[in-house]
Design a protein that fits this description.
The structure holds 2 protein chains of 2 kinds. Chain A contains 10 helices and 14 strands. By secondary structure, chain A is of the alpha/beta class. The longest helix of chain A is centred in the last third of the chain and has 18 residues. Chain A is globular, with a radius of gyration of 20 Å. Chain B is mostly helical. Chain B is 68% helix and 0% strand. In chain B, helix 6 runs antiparallel to helix 7. The longest helix of chain B has 31 residues. Chain B is elongated, with a radius of gyration of 18 Å. The model of chain B has no long low-confidence stretch (mean pLDDT 90). The chains are: A alpha/beta, B mainly alpha. Chains A and B meet through helix 2 and helix 3 of A and helix 1 and helix 4 of B.
Chain lengths: 276, 216
């Protein structure tokens, strides 16, 4: 069963178009939405949440989002970057207000998450560091029994240890059957937790496949010259310190990281665009 | 809707919303354009919307399990509640004034006298504010100042017209202390309240429709 089905999602801005992307995330899976800054990751997540008006359909556990907006949002925990809301309110005041919206709000779970993240409920939002704000968002999202978490760059303000804790939390949530779609440009986090990779580039979905398939498909090879790289049909060839580097689909070279795959695919796209 | 309104009270309300309710007592000031009491009510909605914008309230609220179109409705319902409270306080102050002040002090030389009909005028001013401010604000929620400036202009023109009316002979009964000319005053009050409700419902409908298309 799919936790999230997105069909022909399109949003047109004067200088950017989210180009009718479609994808699905299976229930209980962790999907990573990657892409460079401005690729359309936040636009995709905001379109799913209907925070921006866009074309296309979104289904959550089979329910059409636009027809069942309130009920569908109850199943979702959304974290849109850091918590930049109500800076002069205390965490407890915000949590109390949020709790009213969820019939399945778990006060004990909220206290547990706050303890785990060392969140002091009497503190005001403005007194929190960026990392703590993200932890507060997560505590809110996780305390109402969300079945699908949509997280927009949740780890970008976190220190390495907190990111590690965050990844552990995601893995434990996965064990409980929670589905996660999170955008990030810190691909090392994805290598640790993601089952599926959605790679966005300039509003287009360039890849939608299991992490393992994607990382196994490409290997990275260093070439002495550009002609050698072209002869090997290397993808996204770019000049590096010791020669030219590109992705290849044969067994030569070394295993490519997600970062490297992203960089070279992006390079190919740019080359194709400039050729046109 | 209940949770949304509770959230408006716990996270959004600006202190001026309560402060400007006390301005109903301005009816005790002799020879004063009492209609400005209702302008201050608009000012409190402006501060409320401004604070909400600075707090990222709309984006946060829309991520909660609510229909996007219900978000403006909740705020308008809160404003409606406070406006009704202001009208009620003003009416109470008018009753106290009429029973405690000498009759010579009940006629207002600077505007309409504080009586039953005046509450109808006040309701009309509040309705005009709602109908201009909310749809303009929810069409582009990042803008609060421009919708307020426009609604303020509309309010002042309306207040000016209402003050002008009192100088026409046919409006003379409206300046008299209560309970004189109760029939015509009740008619004005009823018409004012009806128009206020119609304009507020229309404001809510337009705001909800426009807000659905907004990108947060």
């Amino acid at each position: 069963m799919f936790a999230l089905e997105v069909e022909a999602l399109k949003k047109v801005y004067p200088n950017f178009t989210l180009d009718g992307i479609s994808f699905a995330v299976e229930a209980g899976q962790i999907a990573g939405l990657i892409g460079r800054n401005g690729a359309g990751k936040s636009t995709t997540l905001k379109s799913i949440m209907r925070l921006i008006s866009s074309e296309g359909t979104v289904k959550v556990f089979g329910k059409d989002f636009s027809e069942n907006e309130g009920a569908v949002k109850e199943l979702i925990g959304y974290v849109g970057g850091g918590f930049r809301f109500y800076p002069n309110k205390t965490l407890s005041a915000i949590a109390n207000a949020v709790a009213e919206f969820y019939p399945h709000w778990d006060k004990e779970a909220f206290t547990r998450y706050c303890d785990a993240y060392a969140l002091v409920l009497t503190k005001k939002v403005r007194e929190l560091s960026e990392g703590m704000k993200i932890k507060f968002s997560l505590a809110l999202a996780l305390s109402h029994g969300a079945k699908l978490l949509l997280l927009d760059e949740p780890t970008s303000g976190l220190d390495p240890l907190s990111r590690e804790d965050f990844c552990d939390t995601l893995l434990s949530l996965k064990k409980q059957g929670v589905t996660v779609l999170f955008s990030t440009h810190i691909t090392s986090d994805l290598m640790r937790v993601a089952d599926q990779i959605l790679y966005l580039s300039d509003g287009k979905l360039l890849a939608d496949e299991p992490l393992e398939t994607l990382t196994k498909r490409y290997r990275l090879k260093l070439f002495a010259s550009l002609s050698e790289a072209n002869a090997a049909r290397a993808i996204g060839v770019k000049e590096v310190k010791d020669g030219f580097e590109g992705l290849i689909t044969s067994s030569e070279g070394r295993e490519a990281t997600l970062d490297e795959i992203m960089i070279h695919l992006e390079w190919t796209r740019r080359q194709n665009e400039s050729a046109h | 809707m209940k949770a949304l309104i509770k959230k408006e009270f716990s996270l959004c309300l600006h202190p001026t919303v309560f402060l400007f309710l006390t301005f109903a007592a301005l009816v005790f000031v002799p020879n004063y354009p009492y209609e400005v009491i209702f302008f201050f009510s608009g000012l409190s909605v402006f501060f409320l919307s401004l604070a909400a914008r600075e707090n990222g309230d709309l984006e946060f609220t829309c991520s909660l399990p609510v229909k996007k179109r219900d978000v403006p409705l909740a705020r308008i319902m809160v404003a409606f509640t406070f406006q009704c409270a202001l009208l009620a306080f003003t009416a109470v102050c008018i009753v106290i004034k009429q029973s405690a002040f000498p009759e010579a002090m009940l006629v207002n030389l600077a505007g309409n006298s504080a009586n039953l009909a005046f509450c109808g005028f006040g309701a009309l001013v509040l309705g005009a504010f709602n109908l201009t401010f909310f749809p303009l604000h929810y069409r582009e929620p990042k803008k609060v100042g421009v919708p307020f400036a426009i609604s303020m202009a509309v309010q002042f023109v309306l207040i000016g017209l209402l003050i002008l009316i009192r100088h026409f002979p046919f409006a003379a009964p409206l300046a008299s202390p209560d309970p004189e000319n109760s029939g015509v005053k009740f008619t004005v009050l009823f018409a004012g309240l009806t128009l206020y409700c119609v304009m507020t419902v229309l404001a809510a409908w337009l705001s909800m429709k426009k807000f659905e298309k907004v990108d947060l």
